[in-house]
UniProtKB/TrEMBL annotation:
Record field: transmembrane: 21-42, 54-72, 93-115, 121-137, 157-177, 183-204, 216-234, 254-274
Keywords: Membrane, Transmembrane, Transmembrane helix
Residues in CAAX prenyl protease 2/Lysostaphin resistance protein A-like domain copies: 127-219
Domain of life: Bacteria
Organism: Novosphingobium album (ex Liu et al. 2023)
UniProt name for this protein: Type II CAAX endopeptidase family protein
InterPro entries: Rce1/LyrA-like_dom (IPR003675)
Pfam family, one: Rce1-like
């Protein structure tokens, strides 16, 4: 029996589960599993993607991983859910949406100045509901998986720098499975999105800013500018646009994300946020260095 005021040492199984890399695997499985289950359920119904119900379909697919992460935090990791803390959420989400829009429009504008992008006219509503659904799904799901689960748990072992590098590389590698992907496209995603979105999380230690950037980036590119999002094919959105010139400038069939211009613009923005996170003391040393300081 334990005396009053004493705390019991966690058992071997609990210590194994509580190890960061174990938590990373369990958390990733729960987040992905929730998305798969909800997607299977949604696909049982004949819902047109480019309709208001299609957008709700995307919202459901985006909320499922977030709810799974809340269950993971409460019952598996047994810690506070800081990543979705509500104080300041509206401000950070709004700033993220604005930043994602500005970065994509700014990149397109620079490509246009170099002769690689033109606005031919206005189409109308186009694939509005489809791209809204994509934005409502992609931001919450991918940021929960890559930043809240993988980056955060890796950081506890290898430190912020190596965790960011690993998740950025993994994020770029994952996009190589997309249609029309090239090795340069994967490298561009690694640099511009892996660093930018990782920095958005590290700066706030919440996901609202990163989700806003991610969702607005996809929606602006796919609907407003009618550019393929990560190689997913033609995207008839609000504007009728054309891209002509070398692939290093236009991004080719993968879309503007594979343009050197976008690579430079978004990476610089990410590095600026990383510098701010460093100044605010948000970087964590690797576990072996932290242990040495305790000796």
């Amino acid at each position: 029996m334990t005396q009053l005021g004493e705390t019991r040492e966690p058992g071997r199984l609990r210590r194994f589960i509580a190890y960061p890399l174990t938590l990373m695997v369990i958390g990733a499985a729960m987040v992905i599993g929730a998305l798969v289950i909800v997607s299977i359920g949604i696909n049982l119904f004949d819902i047109g993607r480019n309709s208001p119900l299609g957008a709700l379909r995307g919202l459901a697919a985006g909320l499922a991983p977030v709810l799974a992460y809340a269950v993971f935090g409460r019952w598996v990791e047994r810690g506070p859910n800081r990543e979705f803390a509500t104080p300041g959420a509206a401000r950070e989400l709004g700033l993220g949406l604005l930043l994602g829009f500005v970065l994509m429009v700014g990149s397109a504008g620079l490509v246009a100045l170099l002769g690689g992008f033109r606005i031919e006219g206005v189409l109308g509503l186009g694939n509005f509901w489809t791209m809204l659904g994509v934005a409502l799904y992609s931001g919450p799901f991918e940021e929960t998986l890559f930043r809240a689960v993988i980056l955060r748990q890796l950081e506890r072992v290898v430190g912020t720098f190596w965790a960011l590098a690993a998740t950025a590389a993994f994020f770029g590698f994952a996009h190589l499975a997309n249609p029309n992907a090239t090795f340069f496209a994967g490298f561009a995603i690694m640099m511009e999105a892996g660093i930018l979105l990782g920095a958005a999380y590290l700066l706030t230690r919440r996901l609202w800013l990163a989700i806003g950037v991610h969702s607005a980036w996809n929606f602006t590119q796919g609907w407003l500018l009618s550019i393929p999002v990560s190689g997913t094919g033609p995207s008839p959105g609000l504007l009728v646009t054309s891209r002509t010139g070398p692939e290093w400038l236009t991004g080719g069939d993968f879309g503007l994300e594979a343009s050197v211009v976008t690579l430079v613009v978004a990476t610089l923005a990410g590095l600026a946020m990383l510098r701010r996170a460093w100044q605010r003391g948000e970087f964590v040393a690797p576990r072996w260095q932290r242990n040495q300081t305790k000796l």
